[in-house]
Amino acid sequence: MSAEKENKTTRHWGTIFLGVVVAIIFLTIIFSFQLKTTECAVVSTLGRLSRVEEAGWHWRWPYPIQSIHKFDNRVRCFEGIYGKLEETLTRNGQNIILGTYVNYKISDPEEFYKKMLTVANAESQLSDWMRSANKMVAGQYDFEQFVNTDPKLIKLGEMEKKIKAILQKTSAPCGMEIMSVGINYTNIPESNSKEVFARMISERETISKGYRSQGKKEAQDIRTEADKKRMDIIADARAQATRIRAEGDAEAAKFYAKFQENPDLAVFLRKLDSLKRVIGGRTTLILDTDSAPFDLLKMGSEKLDTPKK
Hints:
With 309 residues, the chain is of the alpha+beta class. It folds into three domains: 2-72, no CATH class; 76-188, Tetrahydropterin Synthase, Chain A, CATH 3.30.479.30; 268-303, no CATH class. The chain is 55% helix and 19% strand. The strands form three sheets. Strands 6, 7, 8 and 9 form a four-stranded antiparallel beta sheet that branches. The chain has a three-stranded antiparallel beta sheet with strand order 3-2-5, covered by helices on one side. A two-stranded antiparallel ribbon has the order 1-4. The longest helix is centred in the C-terminal third of the chain and has 72 residues, at 190-261. The chain is rod-shaped and about 165 Å long. The protein starts with a helix and ends with a helix.
């Protein structure tokens, strides 16, 4: 009997221990909560905000005494709930379709919970702010600064900075931080596309005419410069030729003075020079020896035939 009673007592204590463990686990779940590293939470006690908690394990009073409102504290990319692609007017009265996106995060959970209560409400309000900012900034720029073949004239980066500044000022009191703003879509309404394309073609033609006119002017300048250089070169060559002729005439005058002292010698030398030019290697000529300068040959032969005294 004692052994049987001991076994029943042992089983009873085992059941009690298991019940205690289950109760501890149950109470721990009820009186605590856990937050991931990507989360933060606002704890409200009887409907009033009491504290803000970061990632980790935290104690709490069970519902309905305390409620836990968890928020994701990572950066969220938001393109707008409605009006993602919305038509607006530029400064010069042209219609354009814009699409923007916003990267934001919850920087102050307490203010965010007070002003927005939920992420859905916050993004609904942010969508309205985005539409208002887009219209305000787009009205400060001309159509050509949105769509243009010349990248230097496009001001999308400047517009993004202005939209970001507006949204930061509006959302900061609500516990939201705008990290970046981007324009991810620009287009023109179909009703205005033909007019816009015609104007762009006209602008391109005007620019191309300007390039052609500039090219013709530069070509004419090059030809004019080349003609000027050619005339300068010819003038220099003529001046040099005149100088050389003058120097040659001066040298020739010296020889002519010598020739005047002995005219027969001058004639003889001129005839020899002519023979050198006319008669080359292996040249056969049949000419009258009485004609100059071949009369020299005859003179030589007569002298050879004349008997010595």
